[in-house]
Amino acid sequence: MSDTYLKDVNFNSDGLVAAIAQDAATGRILMMAWMNREALTRTIALGEAVYFSRSRQKLWHKGESSGHTQKVSEIRLDCDGDLLCLQVDQAGGIACHTGRESCLYRVFKDGQWQTVDPVLKNPEDIYS
Amino acid sequence: MSDTYLKDVNFNSDGLVAAIAQDAATGRILMMAWMNREALTRTIALGEAVYFSRSRQKLWHKGESSGHTQKVSEIRLDCDGDLLCLQVDQAGGIACHTGRESCLYRVFKDGQWQTVDPVLKNPEDIYS
């Protein structure tokens, strides 16, 4: 496949573009991570989300250690090319390393961030 | 109100945090923009989305010129504090400067990005 599509993506000065994963069934936003060119190319080829870990500075096939892979059914690009949105089927129903469905589990209320979503699985059991 | 909640937000080296606006009624992701401390504080105070424009390097009350304001009903913060998600009521049903509902109007298909969403209003009419 031609990689012309990569030219439409505005990778930043670190060679990265933001990628949101949205649950294809519920519409819930699960997480945001980053992709470099190789991560996007691999995501398309594999049909599962592959990000670039900024902390580990390497490709990160989401779920490689937890089993919580993300099957990708659609990828969208925004108007200025610096945001990707993935429609995903989240294996295990858990996207967050804390064992929650979504990384967005804190709601602003009464002047502070309040945790409103339950831990579905103990992280120690996820990564053991 | 105490600004303790700002300490939980991991603003990057430019003092910014990514913010996604999601349509509260449909779940559709409308756009991503950036906020600095003042933008987040004003968003909370005003109940409408206020971002920080990186290109213009100033606060940007979304809709100030287009009328397409975003009434905010919920703000969430992710696990590592570097992503905000706003549930919004999008005035005019148009978030994108191209006159489309969402900035994410291009879908990856057959090796390229294909525009799949209609222009609802001519941008020249929006910004005139």
UniProtKB/TrEMBL annotation, chains A, B:
Domain Phosphoribosyl-AMP cyclohydrolase: 31-104
GO MF terms, alphabetically ordered: magnesium ion binding; phosphoribosyl-AMP cyclohydrolase activity; phosphoribosyl-ATP diphosphatase activity; zinc ion binding
Subcellular compartments: Cytoplasm
Cellular component aspect of the GO annotation: cytoplasm
Catalytic activity: 1-(5-phospho-beta-D-ribosyl)-ATP + H2O = 1-(5-phospho-beta-D-ribosyl)-5'-AMP + diphosphate + H(+); 1-(5-phospho-beta-D-ribosyl)-5'-AMP + H2O = 1-(5-phospho-beta-D-ribosyl)-5-[(5-phospho-beta-D-ribosylamino)methylideneamino]imidazole-4-carboxamide
Positions annotated to bind Zn(2+): 79, 96, 103
Record key words, sorted: Amino-acid biosynthesis, Cytoplasm, Histidine biosynthesis, Hydrolase, Magnesium, Metal-binding, Zinc
InterPro entries with a match to the protein in the record: PRA-CH (IPR026660), PRib_AMP_CycHydrolase_dom (IPR002496), PRib_AMP_CycHydrolase_sf (IPR038019)
A Pfam family it matches: PRA-CH
Reported function: Catalyzes the hydrolysis of the adenine ring of phosphoribosyl-AMP.
Assembly notes: Homodimer.
Entry-linked HAMAP family: HisI
Protein name: Phosphoribosyl-AMP cyclohydrolase
Gene expressing this chain: hisI
